[in-house]
Amino acid sequence: MSTNRATIYMKAEQNAEVQSEDVFVKDIAGVACSDPQTLAKVKAIKLHSFKAGQPKRQVISLLKVIEEIGRVCPNADVQSIGETAVLVERIDVNRYKGPLQTWKLIFVALVSFFGTAFTIMAFHNDIGINEVFGKIYEMVTGSPGDGYGILELAYSVGLAVGIIVFFNHIGGRRITKDPTPIEVEMRVYEEDVNKALIQTADREGRTIDVS
Fold first, then answer.
1. Going by C-beta distance under 8 Å and a sequence separation of 6 or more, which residues neighbour residue 133?
2. Contact at 8 Å (CB) between 7 and 79?
3. Tens of pLDDT along 40-90?
4. N or C, which terminus of the chain has less Cβ within 10 Å?
5. Residues 149-189: pLDDT tens digits?
6. Where in the chain are the domains?
């Protein structure tokens, strides 16, 4: 197949991370073409360069990518089956290393643990869980309860088991292959943030687009 008649398929992601200053087509999209030479040319097309002191995020329109491909392969047919714009972020290779990251993890873990514990205690205090258990015990046995018993123990165990099953994790192990509720919410949050950044860049005219 000749280069002029090649059909190029692109699947762009909503978000892409790069470690170098230069951004190429291969960094933001999956590319397929039956002509190896055309495929190599397209992947090597340079789209943007991050300069020192400039923002490390840049939105690139797929129309701009198609325009650049058209300059390299004038008569090629480009089919885009992915996103219409890509949020490209340059990351530091060493940003996850060092003691600072460890302390961040410890801080988040402590806040999550004590925050969850306080929330559970506040909820139980609001609904008067001790009075509820006392009334249930008295209804079943006919006599008032004399302290913590089987109801409180069963409820405590059930609460712990319910949390483990809901979050689908025991330590570092996953109970099932399904994503956890936190993972689902994080994906939704990430998509919303990416869309907001892309729309903001477009409104402010900072998107790399066709001229």
1. 145, 151, 152, 155
2. yes
3. 999 999 999 998 888 889 999 999 999 999 999 888 899 998 899 999 999
4. C
5. 788 888 889 988 888 888 877 766 777 788 888 888 989 99
6. 3-95, 99-198
Reported CATH class of domain 3-95: mainly beta
Q: Give the integer Cα–Cα distance in Å for 93 and 176.
A: 32
175: left (phi over 0), alpha (psi -120 to 50) or beta: alpha
Phi-psi region at 188: left, alpha or beta (left = phi > 0; alpha = psi -120 to 50): alpha
Residues in the chain: 211
- Cα–Cα distance measured from residue 144 to residue 7, given in angstroms and rounded to the nearest whole number: 80
Please write the tens of the pLDDT for every residue from 34-53.
999 999 999 999 999 998 88
- Report residue 29 as tokens: 């999209």
Lookup: tokens for 123:
């909820």
Q: 90: which 2 tokens? A: 């340059």
- What span, in angstroms and rounded, lies between the C-alpha atoms of 17 and 207? 17
Matching residue, tokens 């325009």: 67
CA distance 3 to 60: 25
